[in-house]
Each structure stands twice: as structure tokens, then as C-alpha cells.
Design brief:
six-stranded mixed sheet, alpha+beta, about 50% strand, 3 helices, Nuclear Transport Factor 2, Chain: A, about 120 residues
């Protein structure tokens, strides 16, 4: 789930990314809270419109060191490390734009695991 969410942000539509979240999810971008899938979609679309994310941005999320703990049949938590890189034809090597940690809480809804809370730490 963690890796797919990052990859989806790079290559998928906003709707496909938002489908990974429960309806009342919280997306915490370093203290900037976006609650509910409509607010999360607005935030993600804004990042794409500004050229910071999405297929046209030329960026990629690299997610590593994923650890998930299943707490019950319906809940789990996880954390992972991430880097946002840019690789352009005129650059010899990819450039790390930012890095940090995801801290997630997951909830199983109708048999499908979804993100209930994602905190992005820089």
C-alpha cells in the first residue's frame, strides 16, 4: 500500500490516488491537514497544477524501509522512508528534492485495506 500510494502519485490520476484513502481520511503534510477525500483531492490536484507532482512533473517518489504492523483484522499501522527525486535529460544524476518519513494508519473497509491517516514528515 505505501509503495503503491507513492507510485500512484507519480503516474496515476488524482482520482486513482484518492481511491487509496478511506472517505474520512486525514492527510497531514507536515502539520497542514487535509481531511476527507475531497480535501485530499484538492491538495493533490493543486500540487500537480503547480508542477510539484504528477506525471508531468518529472519527479519520482522512492519509498524504502517499509514496516507494517497489523493491529487487528481491521486496522494496521506503518512507516516508511521516502525521497522525491527529479531526473532531467540535462542533469548527469537525479537530484533529491526532499526526503522524509511516512507514518500511516490503515483501515480495512469492505475487505480492502485503505489509508486512514498519512502523516508526512520532512
Amino acid at each position: 500500500m505505501m509503495e503503491f500510494a507513492a507510485a500512484a502519485d507519480d503516474a496515476a490520476s488524482v482520482d486513482e490516488v484518492v481511491a487509496l484513502f478511506v472517505d474520512d481520511a486525514v492527510f497531514d503534510m507536515g502539520g497542514e491537514l487535509h481531511q476527507g477525500t475531497s480535501a485530499i483531492a484538492r491538495y493533490l490536484q493543486g500540487a500537480r497544477d503547480a508542477g510539484f507532482a504528477g506525471p508531468a512533473a518529472g519527479t519520482r517518489h522512492i519509498v524504502t524501509n517499509c514496516l507494517v504492523t497489523v493491529e487487528s483484522n481491521e486496522t494496521a499501522s506503518g512507516q516508511s522512508e521516502w525521497m522525491l527525486i527529479r531526473s532531467a535529460a540535462d542533469e548527469a544524476f537525479p537530484i533529491v528534492l526532499s526526503a522524509g518519513r511516512y507514518r500511516d494508519r490503515y483501515r480495512r473497509v469492505d475487505g480492502v485495506w485503505r489509508i486512514a491517516h498519512r502523516a508526512v514528515e520532512y
